[in-house]
Amino acid sequence: MRREFLLITFLLTIMYSDFAYAQLLSPDSSPNASRINLKELTKKATSGNVESQLQLGFAYQFGNGVEKDIGSSIGWYRRAADNGNPLAQNNLGYIYETGPEGVRNIDEAAKWYMRAAVYGNPAAQFNIGLFYLRGKGLKQSAPDALYWIQRAADVEYSKALAALGYIYAMGEGVPKDFDKAAKFARKAAGKHDPGGQALLGTLYAGGLGVSADSAEAVKWFRKGAKAGDASAEYGLGIMYEMGRGVKQDFQEALQQYRLAGEHGSPEAQTELGEIYEHGKGVKIDYQEAVKWYRRAADLGNTHAATRLGTMYFCDSGVERNLGEVVRLWTWAAQKGNSDAQFNLAGLYMTGTGVQRDFAKAYSLFTFAGKKLDVSKQLNELSPKLSLGEWAEFRSTVGDHYDH
Questions:
Q1: Could you tell me if 400 and 334 are in contact, meaning their C-beta atoms sit under 8 angstroms apart?
Q2: In whole angstroms, what is the distance from residue 84 CA to residue 78 CA?
Q3: What is the four-CA torsion angle of 257, 259, 261, 265, rounded to 10 degrees?
Q4: Of 277, 267, 208, 278, nearest to 238 (Cα)?
Q5: pTM (2 decimals)?
Q6: pLDDT greater than 90 at residue 217
Q7: Contact of 257 with 275, CB cutoff 8 Å
Q8: Are 195 and 159 in contact (CB under 8 A)?
Q9: Does 27 have pLDDT greater than 50?
Q10: 385: pLDDT confidence band, cut at 50, 70 and 90?
Q11: Secondary structure tally for the chain: helices H, strands E
């Protein structure tokens, strides 16, 4: 499945989408701290001391000297935030962005990130920049994303430096410029930012903005991987599998893919699913394949969802379940996956698991045809469409399948 171009296109793309939102600790706080004077801290916080309010927010968020309590953390952060503390404002946004169900509120996250960003908090500037970049909580806007991320980068905030590197590497709202991408990647990597290290490794692997150097790529991937960066682990896995810059070692590649998968990389999870489904260097294990495909699909990977649907359709290690097949392929098709569109079209063409619908099948084959050869299927379906079905097909072109 993989070709070398993945190192300069696919790998860049997945790393570009792999930014995590940022929380800043105050100088006196650490998630690993275990002792606080709760009585004294609460007394000061209740009397209006903003730093104490902030410290209690940390304490309840991380369970430092108290039992974890997100509600209490939000309460104390909010008091400090209402008193104008930008660190508390950013962290309040972070909880609303990443918190559990019932707490998560993207609109609230955007509001608090913006307040902190205006006050000059670099983590908040980075976070609000990502919101604009992804169209999350705010209308997608590359210029606004660049403005806020650049402001954070101007004060040498390492995550922002790495993000700018990816923005220039991908040409997101700016002319694609690998020289600038490499400049920002070096700055971020020099500050030990794992995302910057992963990007620098990718640029060396592809010879983008720097001279191609597989050994140098491995060096930077390894640095990022040691810090637990999923993208760097995944990149390192590719280098081991392909034998670039290191001796080819599939078992080491598998180990890196597994680490990346455990650290939340849906691409690595999908790779693991394929490895176990097809027995690539390991014994075929359908249950293991299903597990990894499911994790990747839950994180939004359409290829994993399509493969998982195929396993349910073909009764490969799991009991055949047409309802699950239709659900998975429909979701992936709506997200623009051409294989899912093709497969789903086949179901509508034959009436398997769904009511037969030639117009819908024709529409889906048409969308799949942007990447796949579907001329045979379209020629077979054309004579079967009535005038009414032709009209229905024309009305569906450009609908939610066209992503």
A1: yes
A2: 10
A3: -90
A4: 267
A5: 0.84
A6: yes
A7: yes
A8: yes
A9: no
A10: confident
A11: 22, 0
Residues comprising the chain, all counted: 403
291 Cβ contact list (under 8 Å, min separation 6)? 273
Q: Which amino acid is at 373?
A: D
Please answer whether residues 270 and 293 qualify as being in contact, where contact means their C-beta atoms are separated by less than 8 angstroms. yes
pLDDT, position 402: 42
CB-count burial class (<10 Å; 0-12, 13-18, 19+) for 359: buried
Better-scored residue on pLDDT, 13 or 257: 257
- The DSSP string of 57-97 is HHHHHHTSSS---HHHHHHHHHHHHHTT-HHHHHHHHHHHH
φ/ψ of residue 177, rounded to 5? -150, 100
* Distance separating alpha carbons of residues 299 and 259, to the nearest angstrom: 16
State how far the alpha carbon of 294 is from the alpha carbons of 269, 278, 333, in Å.
9, 16, 17
Nearby residues of 74 by Cβ (< 8 Å), 6 or more positions away: 57, 92, 95, 103
pLDDT, mean of residues 178-195: 95
User: In the 3-class helix/strand/coil scheme, how is 138-156 assigned residue by residue?
Assistant: CCCCHHHHHHHHHHHHHCC
Going by C-alpha positions, the residue among 285, 331, 283 that lies closest to residue 304 is: 331
Q: What is the pLDDT of residue 391?
A: 64
Q: Which two structure tokens, joined as six digits, stand for 230?
A: 């999923």
Mean pLDDT of 227-250: 94
Residue with tokens 């942007």: 370
For the residues 19-28, what does the mean pLDDT come to?
57
C-beta atoms surrounding 138 within 10 Å: 19
Q: What is the pLDDT of residue 170?
A: 86
Q: Among all chains, which residue has been given the structure tokens 């590649």?
A: 253
SS3 47: coil
Nearest to 366 by CA among 382, 386, 347, 353: 382
d(CA 329, CA 257): 25
